[in-house]
């Protein structure tokens, strides 16, 4: 049997050599960890059991090693160090040895890692983990699962892209009903009257019915291809808060702003601002920047409510100028319009902590330079939390690229929107790197199409939650297109010309007459008697089809959005960022663009 080293020699090796420390602590520690049952982590689950078991065994062994050293050495550790070591030990002991639906395993692991690093900091030893390859393996496994998820969605979606990309204006002229809807589905719906079909749809979409028919299959299959909270790379708000706590951020109070913003914006600021404040603390950022912040709704809460130096950046000079004056007014009334959910008053309102800059945000925008210009008193060691409450079009992807390429950007939390404004690669060039979609290498060459991206900006949850019927303007415009194609086959109406017509109309006759005048068609007065009577009868016949087509197409909205969001998530994972998540931040009925992308270095 090999001779055991004297403990003092072991201790000397630990403090003299980082490598010796890692190896010796592991060898002794893993044995102690094994005896404590940590190898049972190999059975934790189908994803990370083995890696977690080895990792926690190492932590347990290292802690046991230093506690043993304290017992045998004349030089004792401080109470603070011992309390931290015992805390790590207790957290590991409480870690479940089997897959458990009652525990957030990944959040518990993050907490243990954070507390172990704190213990190492107190001990003044490296917090390195000998299983660095395991971390890389975990990241590769996550990337693999996201790719599989994307492949599953795109396999389902690709044959349906003609439906997602169609234009409702052409519903009648292009016979969308029979050409784009599966035959079994449109034949079933043809048998039902309008009221019955609509009620069936509501009932199925609300989860009240699960009949074995084509409509039920369509709704449920579409929903099964939308991203959902999985506690791995798509989190709930509560799960994100747990992650932020593990990274070192504390819970911050929510702030309700009762004036100067509408109810939707107030809800979004209430829901998002305290998480941004917590992430600001966890990432040790010095400043928070909102890209495309407009009037600065979000950063009003951060600066006046949480005292965080904040910078709203927007491309519109006039918007910025107006926002500066608006914040001064808000500051004067802050204590009257803001409520903290912890019962305390918000911190002393100081508008000088909220500043504005006019700039067009691109991938090469130097936020550090802008912060130093706007906060000259804070010019040293700038670290930025980049956020955005609804980053329109390419602003969302560009924000993620800035996070990737600028180390001074410590974290990012953005809510994307306006997908129709994204630039999309046509797949013909290998040099396209700054397009809005796709961002990941995995989806390179894949196209969604503008109308599909526009569809992704809508919300089936809101439509179902509020039981919103489509406007009659869809039917009127589709019917007008039939008339135009019949009498002026080469005429192409200018897009957007008829947007304000509908509120002024009592019926289709009014709509047609106004449209004829606006587009200068010269058709209305030349039509024979009885023509519009026949048109109205045909509209009554087509109304059910158009309404149900609208609902069926709407079911694909969040499927398309899921592709866009997972593509962005995968982009960051491909860049080797480990702490990257999609988070369902808002209630989609109240705020349809409800997901955010969160990452921390």
Adjacency order of strands in the biggest sheet: 1-9-10-8-7-3-4-6
Number of structural domains: 3
For the record, the CATH architecture of the largest domain stands as 3-Layer(aba) Sandwich
CATH homologous superfamily assignment of the largest domain: Vaccinia Virus protein VP39
Report how far apart the termini are.
Answer: 46 Å
Q: Helices, strands, pairings?
A:
Elements: H1 7-16, H2 18-35, H3 49-72, H4 79-93, H5 105-123, H6 132-157, H7 161-164, H8 176-180, H9 183-190, H10 194-205, H11 214-224, E1 234-236, H12 237-247, E2 255-257, H13 263-282, E3 287-291, H14 297-306, E4 310-314, H15 317-337, E5 338-340, E6 354-358, H16 367-374, E7 384-392, H17 395-405, E8 409-417, H18 450-456, H19 460-465, H20 472-487, H21 508-519, H22 531-554, H23 557-574, E9 579-584, E10 595-600
Parallel strand pairs: 1-9, 3-4, 3-7, 4-6, 7-8
Antiparallel strand pairs: 2-5, 8-10, 9-10
Notes on the protein architecture:
The chain has three domains: 7-130, no CATH class; 165-224 and 465-554, no CATH class; 255-439 and 569-600, 3-Layer(aba) Sandwich (Rossmann fold), CATH 3.40.50.150. The chain has 23 helices and ten strands. It has helices spanning 7-16, 18-35, 49-72, 79-93, 105-123, 132-157, 161-164, 176-180, 183-190, 194-205, 214-224, 237-247, 263-282, 297-306, 317-337, 367-374, 395-405, 450-456, 460-465, 472-487, 508-519, 531-554, 557-574; strands at 234-236, 255-257, 287-291, 310-314, 338-340, 354-358, 384-392, 409-417, 579-584, 595-600. An eight-stranded mixed β-sheet has the order 1-9-10-8-7-3-4-6, sandwiched between helices. The longest helix is centred in the first third of the chain and has 26 residues, at 132-157.
């Amino acid at each position: 049997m090999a001779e055991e080293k004297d403990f003092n020699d072991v201790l000397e090796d630990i403090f003299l050599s980082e490598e010796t420390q890692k190896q010796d602590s592991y060898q002794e520690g893993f044995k102690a960890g094994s005896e404590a049952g940590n190898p049972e982590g190999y059975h934790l689950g189908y994803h990370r059991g083995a890696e977690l078991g080895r990792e926690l065994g190492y932590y347990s062994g290292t802690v046991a090693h230093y506690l043993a050293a304290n017992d045998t050495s004349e030089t004792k550790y401080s109470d603070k160090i011992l309390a931290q070591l015992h805390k790590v030990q207790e957290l590991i002991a409480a870690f479940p040895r089997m897959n458990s639906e009652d525990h957030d395993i990944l959040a518990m692991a993050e907490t243990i890692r954070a507390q172990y690093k704190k213990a190492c900091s107190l001990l003044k030893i490296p917090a390195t983990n000998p299983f660095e390859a395991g971390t890389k393996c975990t990241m590769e496994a996550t990337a693999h699962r996201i790719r599989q998820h994307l492949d599953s969605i795109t396999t389902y979606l690709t044959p349906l892209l003609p439906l997602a990309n169609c234009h409702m204006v052409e519903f009648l002229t292009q016979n969308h009903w029979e050409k784009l809807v599966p035959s079994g589905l449109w034949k079933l719906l043809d048998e039902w009257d309008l009221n019955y079909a609509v009620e069936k749809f509501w009932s199925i979409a609300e989860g009240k019915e699960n009949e074995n028919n084509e409509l039920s299959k369509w709704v449920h299959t579409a929903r099964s291809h939308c991203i959902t909270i999985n506690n791995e790379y798509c989190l709930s708000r509560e799960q994100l808060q747990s992650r932020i706590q593990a990274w070192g951020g504390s819970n911050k109070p929510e702030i309700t702003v009762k004036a100067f913003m509408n109810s939707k914006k107030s809800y979004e600021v209430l829901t998002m601002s305290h998480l941004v404040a917590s992430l600001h603390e966890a990432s040790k950022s010095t400043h928070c920047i909102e890209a495309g912040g407009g009037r600065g709704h979000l950063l009003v809460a951060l600066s006046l409510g949480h005292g965080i130096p904040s910078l709203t950046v927007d491309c519109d000079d006039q918007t910025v100028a107006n926002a500066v004056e608006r914040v001064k007014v808000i500051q004067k009334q802050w204590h009257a319009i803001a409520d903290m959910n912890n019962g305390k008053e918000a911190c002393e309102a100081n508008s000088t902590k909220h500043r504005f800059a006019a700039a067009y945000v691109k991938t090469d925008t130097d936020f550090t330079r802008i912060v130093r210009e706007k906060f000259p008193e804070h010019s040293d060691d700038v670290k930025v939390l980049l956020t955005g409450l609804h980053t329109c079009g390419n602003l969302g992807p560009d924000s993620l690229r800035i996070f990737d390429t600028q180390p001074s950007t410590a974290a990012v939390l953005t809510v994307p929107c306006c997908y129709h404004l994204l630039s999309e690669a046509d797949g013909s060039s290998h040099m396209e790197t700054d397009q809005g979609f796709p961002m990941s290498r995995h989806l390179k060459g894949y196209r969604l199409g503008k109308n599909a991206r526009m569809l992704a900006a809508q919300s089936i949850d809101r439509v179902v939650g509020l039981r919103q019927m489509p406007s009659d303007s869809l039917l009127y415009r589709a019917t007008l297109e039939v008339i135009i194609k019949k009498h002026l086959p080469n005429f192409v109406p200018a897009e957007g010309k008829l947007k304000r017509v509908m509120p002024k109309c009592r019926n289709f006759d009014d709509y047609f007459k106004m449209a004829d005048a606006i587009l200068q068609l010269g058709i209305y007065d030349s039509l024979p008697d009885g023509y519009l009577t026949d048109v109205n009868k045909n509209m009554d016949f087509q109304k059910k089809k158009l309404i149900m087509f609208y609902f069926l197409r709407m079911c694909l909205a969040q499927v398309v959005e899921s592709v866009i969001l997972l593509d962005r998530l995968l982009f960051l994972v491909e860049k080797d960022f480990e702490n990257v998540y999609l988070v369902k931040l808002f209630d989609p009925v109240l705020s349809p663009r409800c997901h955010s992308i969160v990452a921390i270095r």
